[in-house]
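User: Hi! I'm working on a homework problem where we have to compare a predicted structure to a textbook description. Could you give me the structure for the chain below?
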Amino acid sequence: MNSSVETTSVDAVWRDRRAQALLLAATLTIMANATISPALPGLAREFATHPQVALLTRLLVPAPSLAVVLVAPLVGVLSDRVGRRSLLLWGIVLFALAGSAGLLLPGLESILVSRLILGVAVAAIMTTQTALIGDYFSGAARAALTGLQTSARNFGGFAFISSAGLLAGLSPRLPFLIYALPLLVLPFLMRSLPRPTPRAAGQGAEAPETDGHPQWRLILMGLLLFQMITNMTFFIMPTQIPFYLDALGHDGAVMTGTVLGLLTLAGGLAALVYGHLAARLGVAGILALGYAAMAMGIAAIGARAGLPAMLAGGVCIGIGFAWVLPAFVTVMLALAPARRRGTAGGLLTTSIFLGQVLSPFLSLPIIASIGFDGLYLGAGVLLVTISALALIAGVLRLGLGRAL
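Assistant: Happy to help. Predicted structure tokens:
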């Protein structure tokens, strides 16, 4: 199959085997951390005699994120040198082996090590998958695919975590089997993803993009900062909402599942229309709209307006985040030179996971000072401010050209 950019229609992306393969790869990254969450109580019982069982079992979930933060920039540089397709395929193999190792490993320490190795695989998959979107697609098709990437992660996470819950009821080790599933689709990925070929100057619509924006490094630093802040803010939902609901006197477990389930489902559906919205509003316009939706949702949760408002808030946050996240990828791919997309993608991946890791550390002092209400309302103010900045950037374009 020719690896040059051929797909220009938003709707045609669905029929492109390269897009299908990349979306299958995208479903893996969201499940890396949370898939074993339903198994944690069972693992704690299995290793009840371990003196540090409480700490180690809780570290199993964030361990991949910590590894991603450390290695993603290096993986990005490596992908630019050895080839993104090869690194993606090897990353999927490592993902399956390291992820499923917990089925047989004898102790918590060895399982924790396997989770850290899993994070290396996640860094390779996320970085190369994003860079390959830029290599294979351009224009409206690229924008549509970045939205579908978010949708695939949401729906994949919903399916995998639900399945893990059922398997954990049989044995706390069985959810680790889910990590081996990518081996079933690996042959399809190998057939469907051609090796990207460099395009000569003057060849087609992609040629002006190959050298990137003159100030792409400086702009990328700003992009990384806003991506980190966005994820830091978003992750007050999964990390703090259970405790907030409990403090309000609700059934924390049931309501948390409901709010986060609605958030994930709404995000998956909203991401399906990202490409069409971006074509009409531009990236700056959809950033402004996405941040405004997130601000509205988080403020609704902090306002204590009742359960219906809280559920509606979760839906708004899911929709907004599903529009904001692919917009960062779209801008990064438009700004970075083609030969440095892996490096830029690795840095973007690091900023995403760094925001996740830092979120609870920054949230707890704020909660101690002004309470949960203050945290959520303050986050709403921050997000509406960023929405206004995005709108201003869209009007002024700020030298970013077609990236906005």
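For your comparison, note the following. Residues 1-8, 199-209 have pLDDT under 50 and may be disordered. The CA atoms of residues 39 and 168 lie 5 Å apart. Good luck with the assignment!
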